[in-house]
Specification:
CATH topology: Arc Repressor Mutant, subunit A
Number of helices: 4
Order of helices and strands: HHHH
Shape: globular
Helix content: 40-55%
Structural class: mainly alpha
CATH class: Mainly Alpha
Number of domains: 1
Strand content: under 5%
CATH superfamily: Homeodomain-like
Radius of gyration: 13 Å
CATH architecture: Orthogonal Bundle
Number of strands: 0
Largest sheet: none
Distance between the termini: 17 Å
Length: 64
């Protein structure tokens, strides 16, 4: 699934911080502290980042 551009609840631009969030958590940083550094404060926006499943690489090879 691709990350939505904005949070469904409040409209915060979630896609702008997703790449940095993903890279920093892969390096082993705590997701909560990364979101604090990126100024993602609302629970709805945090949910958008934490619950996203990146499966585009698995779906992309298939044609319609």
């Amino acid at each position: 699934m691709l990350i939505p551009m904005r949070c469904f609840s409040c409209g915060f631009p979630v896609a702008a911080v997703y790449e940095e969030f993903k890279n920093r958590t892969k390096k082993g940083e705590d997701p909560g502290k990364v979101m604090d550094d990126l100024k993602v404060a609302r629970y709805c926006c945090r949910r958008m980042l934490l619950s996203n499943v990146d499966i585009i690489d698995e779906i992309a090879p298939f044609k319609r």
